[in-house]
């Protein structure tokens, strides 16, 4: 009886494993299909000048418009895309969309907007990244200064020289590089000093209680001061209240992003939002 019990546990275990593998395969197939059927969409969130309210540009954030499941946020599929390697194709799709959008803005006489995109750590060191960006530069007539490439701190913790070389290459092509979610990874001052980056973004966990927690406020202040010292742009993400805006303005943070100004929007909605802010700025408090 003991043996039989052991076997059934074993069988159950195997069945569970098979189910997991089947689920993964299915998920991967679906993701691939989503890409082929053009089910992905970029949403745009404005970046605001903290002192003037001016609209500086936007961050493009991907969503998956699944025919049955509806709008799927990136955190629900980026992990799978990274582990299957599909992230490279997805990121390349994002890059091309960003160029297309920048070219459209240029045709509309909006030559100054910046557009930030997120590149996965897995893709950042890949040789295809440069190739893709170079191809797009040839195909679309935009100023590379307008494209900001966001990478997370953890990328910086990989091979220091490789990351530094890649950032230098991107800089030579004219793009800006930004360190996203700053403060959540293995923040090291070493790379901030030696990488030719243009921007850091303070993670929203430090912004969340900035108006009533002295430690969070102190951390934000320290990052802002550090950015000033290094002559880097600094953006606070996750600004949801006017109190947070006021606090960040006092701390001297030049750029802000967050639901207080706007959630990420599909392109049509963004156009309406821009029409509503025809002076090119949001109202100051
Ligand atoms: P992220 O780059 O740090 O993007 C900021 C996230 O915070 C976005 O979530 C945005 O919708 C959300 N957010 C913005 N303002 C606020 C706010 O005031 N309050 C709160 N609670 N949240 C706010 P989202 O769009 O779900 O993206 C999550 C992450 O997925 C991104 O973090 C980025 O790491 C990744 N991601 C998004 N799009 C892409 C992409 O095209 N490619 C790659 N590789 N990763 C992407
Ligand atoms: Mg980002
Ligand atoms: Mg971020
Ligand atoms: Mg984040």
UniProtKB/TrEMBL annotation:
<feature type="domain" description="EAL">
    <location>
        <begin position="24"/>
        <end position="278"/>
    </location>
</feature>
<protein>
    <submittedName>
        <fullName>Sensor domain-containing phosphodiesterase</fullName>
    </submittedName>
</protein>
